[in-house]
Structure to design on (271 residues):
C-alpha cells in the first residue's frame, strides 16, 4: 500500500477515533495523544526493537524523553525491549564519553559572535552529550495531533460531528493555539474559536459559582456540577498531564557559551 493510501486510511480511522473521544471528559486531542503514546511505545518495544532504522533513530535521540521513558513501564512488553534498547544506548553514550578530554575548557567568548559577524558553531560538547533528534514517541504524537486538529476543523460544521463537538468540553487552550497557528486560513477556524469561547464562558461561570460556594456565607448550599470545575479548568488551560513539554529544559551546561574545539581529541575534529 502506498504512503498516500496509508495516510488516507489513517485519517479515515482517526475521524472516528476523534468523534468517539468527544464523548469523553476533557480535551479529546489530549486523550488521543495520550493513547497514541502508549500504542507507539507498545508497538516499538514489541515489534521494532531490533529494526535497524528504529535503533539508529534512538541513538540520535538518545532514547525517549523523560515522560515517554517512564511511560514505557505501563507497556506489558517493556522489560526485554527496554533492556535491548538501553544496552545499545549505554554503548553509544560510553563511546561518546570516551571521546571527551577532561578537564573541559572554559567556554570561549567573542564579541563577533554577539554582533553576529561570525556564525557560532554548535558546541562540540552539545554534539556529544545532547540528542541530535527529538524523542520518536513525541514525533509520532505530534504527527497525529495535527491530523486530529485538521479533522476537527474539516468536520466541525457538519451536523453529526458538530453535534458531538457541541456536547463535549472542546479542546484545551494549547491545542486551540496549535490549530490557530497551524491552520490560520481554514474555513472553519472562526467557528472553532467561537464555539470554544462559549464553552469557556460557561466553565468560567461554573468557577465563579464554585468560588462563591466556598465562601462561608454560602457554604451550606449543596454542591452541583461546579464542584469539579477547578479540575476541568486545569486541563482546559494546560492540557492533559504529560501531553505537552515542561519548560524546565535548558542547555547542557546552563549557559549560552560556545565550547572550543579542544573538547575532542584532534582526530575527532572532523565530526
Amino acid at each position: 500500500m502506498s504512503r498516500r493510501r496509508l495516510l488516507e486510511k489513517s485519517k479515515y480511522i482517526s475521524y472516528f477515533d476523534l468523534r468517539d473521544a468527544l464523548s469523553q471528559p476533557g480535551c479529546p486531542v489530549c486523550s488521543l495523544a495520550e493513547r497514541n503514546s502508549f500504542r507507539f511505545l507498545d508497538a516499538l518495544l514489541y515489534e521494532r526493537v531490533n529494526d535497524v532504522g528504529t535503533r539508529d533513530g534512538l541513538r540520535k535521540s538518545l532514547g525517549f524523553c523523560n515522560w515517554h521513558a517512564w511511560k514505557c513501564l505501563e507497556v506489558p512488553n517493556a522489560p526485554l525491549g527496554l533492556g535491548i534498547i538501553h544496552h545499545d544506548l549505554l554503548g553509544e553514550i560510553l563511546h561518546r564519553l570516551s571521546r571527551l578530554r577532561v578537564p573541559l575548557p572554559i567556554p570561549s567568548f567573542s564579541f563577533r559572535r554577539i554582533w553576529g559577524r561570525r556564525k557560532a558553531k554548535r558546541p562540540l560538547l552539545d554534539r556529544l552529550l545532547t540528542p541530535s533528534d527529538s524523542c520518536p514517541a513525541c514525533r509520532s504524537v505530534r504527527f497525529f495531533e495535527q491530523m486530529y486538529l485538521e479533522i476537527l476543523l474539516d468536520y466541525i460544521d457538519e451536523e453529526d460531528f458538530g453535534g458531538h463537538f457541541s456536547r463535549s468540553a472542546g479542546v484545551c487552550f494549547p491545542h486551540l493555539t496549535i490549530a490557530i497557528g497551524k491552520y490560520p486560513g481554514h474555513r472553519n477556524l472562526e467557528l472553532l474559536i467561537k464555539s470554544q469561547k462559549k464553552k469557556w464562558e460557561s466553565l468560567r461561570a461554573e468557577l465563579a459559582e464554585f468560588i462563591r460556594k466556598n465562601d462561608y456565607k454560602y457554604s451550606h448550599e449543596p454542591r452541583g456540577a461546579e464542584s469539579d470545575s477547578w479540575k476541568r479548568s486545569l486541563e482546559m488551560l494546560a492540557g492533559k498531564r504529560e501531553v505537552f513539554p515542561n519548560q524546565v529544559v535548558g542547555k547542557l551546561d546552563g549557559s549560552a557559551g560556545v565550547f572550543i574545539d579542544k573538547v575532542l581529541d584532534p582526530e575527532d575534529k572532523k565530526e
